[in-house]
Amino acid sequence: MRRIISCIVLMFLFLCPVCRLWAQDKMVAVVNNEIITQKDLNDFLNFIRMQYSHQLSGKELEEKVNSAKQDLLQRLIEDRIILQQAKIEKINIEPARIKAKINEIKKHYPLESDFENDLAKQGLVQADLENKIREQMLTYNIIEQKVRSKIMVRPDEITEFYNQNKRKFIKPEERFFTVIALQDESSAKSLSYSLRLGQKLEDLATKYTFTVDKLSSSRGQDLRSEIEEAVFKLGVSEVSEPVKIDKQYYVFKLDNVIGSQQLSLAQAQDKIQAYLFDKKLQEGLAKWLDEIKKQSYIKTFDNN
Fold this sequence. Notes:
The protein contains twelve helices and nine strands. By secondary structure, the chain is an alpha+beta fold.
């Protein structure tokens, strides 16, 4: 019995790594003559996570990565199709461009070892990253050649869109205000009271230690909610009560208000141009991909 148990344990220990490798290499899709494995999906997700991690962290990063998971296989299939087209068109990427992109990424890290450690956390090595960057560049170039270069937004299209959507091009009310930061609540209350009595900020500089900044914003933009609440209650020249944010106290003085304005066609045209171009790009890319898919063999496997 002991021998039997020992054999079972040894077989389990031996086969587990093999099972894990099999799980990684199991086929999830076939695109023409190429196989997509679970490892390809995992590597693709890790690459996406690494890209997002330069701008996001914590909960925001995980939410972004989780949203990418939803159509991950479809994206990977489309990427394979696009890369196959780039190969047919014999598009090449100079190694120097890939090296330059790697060096640009490395600038986000204090040390080379930090860069390598981050790669390792995602289950990647530099060669994986170089390959992904090369694929991105190939994808961009073939899309540029087949879709983007053929898009044109005419002036009359911009004018028509503006006339049909004027209400979308109203610049909201903008508030200009002074921000006074102090270290303790007592000083902040006293300074706020003095300003409301009509004393000038310059005259109070000898009595209080504070820093001053000038800002402008519209409602719903980048202001923290407690700042927006304080500033948008004020009339011109009015001063707020102190607002505690983190470890400092802030006093706000409203300097000026510019009401909402209808943007002219000239003021809105760059934004409209970018919107219409992107819309046409997405439509053109979808149409091009549909045409290629009709000529391709695509099969996915349910491995649940």
